[in-house]
Amino acid sequence: MNLIPKRALISVSEKSGIVEFARELVNLGIEIISTGGTAKLLKENGIDIVEISDFTGFPEILDGRVKTLHPKVHAGILNIRDNENHQLVMKEMGLVHIDLVVVNLYPFEKTVAKEGVRFDEAIENIDIGGPTMVRSAAKNHKYVAIVVDNNDYNKIIDEIKNGGITYEMRLNLARKAFTHTAVYDALISNYFNKVCKIDFPDEISLPMRKAQDLRYGENPHQKAAFYKSPLIKEVSVSTSKQLHGKELSFNNIIDINAALELVKEFDKPAAVIIKHTNPCGVGIADNLLDAYNFALECDPVSAFGGIVAFNKILNKETAEKLKELFLEVVIAPDFDKEALDILTTKKNLRLIKTGDLNQIKDNEFDVKKVVGGFLLQDRDLENFDKEHGLKVVTKRKPTEEELEALKFAWIVVKHVKSNAIVYANKNQTIGIGAGQMSRVDSSIIAAMKARKSLNGCVMASDAFFPFRDSVDEAAKNGITAIIQPGGSIRDNEVIEAANEHNIAMIFTGMRHFKH
To answer: Which of 25, 260, 350, 427 could bridge 30 with an S-S bond, Cβ 3.0-4.6 Å?
Structure first.
């Protein structure tokens, strides 16, 4: 049965479009009850309203903390219209129906997003009456329409003008309303967890808002959408802006995240080429063009159809080089005009602007989904064990140049799927072995992938060597220094192998598995 409202209650914090909406309601003969700032705004715009205190016969008290928490309000919303007992009580007590509730909530999210917000200020922006009205109206959606999204105002007006608000519309509005309050409560809950320094609470909600529907998921037969965390501040795939090209795909977004998280690790101009979340080339230099050329040299075959990320503003010279290769996505803090002009000639190439990468990282969870549950962990933001530092465990110490190369390779290997091996010099990756079931296989594959000589290069391993075989393999290829976490029961055997080959070896005391 369609609903033609006779009475609406309006109380909104986000006031965009509310004056026009309320005016339309009045023109349709609907009485409006309103509160606080909303009532003031509507009256200033010549719209007749009933103040909430006049409706309830009870003043707003406690600095507005108590105004809609009143039986007259909630009976008006919650009564079942075709329940004889309910209607008898309504009549005996002189209560009236409220058919349309238009409410959005105190701006808790905007408040806690501000730098240096005080705890008491955050608390005052926790809405109590609003969620209560929203949930009451949503529960009673058979008889009441609840509106929490100003994008629905025109739809409501159109439905009223065309015979009333349908049940299908009311059901969908109720769905949106319960989601609205769920996200609101999740934001508050997570804020309190942070204030109370609770890392992993017994119960948790992860608030997300849909950013876009995707054409499909990892494969065309899978449906997909992209959701973003409301309070994310860190430069990330979630905060970036697409400037050009086809719509991003599910796989694009995953790869963009992988590329960005790696390129953010470097201060010097850096280029990262990603394929299926693994780097197939990383380079650093004094300028972006050299950095990209270094990255591309590592594995130009795999770079075809890849994703490239930079940590500095993309310039004309680098853009001209990028244009030579088919790429899916180019990511940079920004693009100068000439670079943009060059790259936008490629119709389908997606260009992603991130903004300045030099920002503090948000301490949010790293979340992995399993069937029936989630795994939550801290993000892997550290590179070295700060307490113990880097420990040379071999007779020979690395040279200064080897040490530079080792640190570079160690940063890269953190972003390679385990088992991970990276061969590199101080400016570029030379060979990368990823995702193998045995570490020695990764060592062999990384050498097979190398297009340049590995002689004099260094090796990084994301976890300890269970046997000496990977060290022997490295020695065959001319590797002169190795960085790895250490911690194997065969560490002594591995160190002995390095000494036999005159290879310098460093232990980091920190593992970087990436599954």
So the answer is: 25
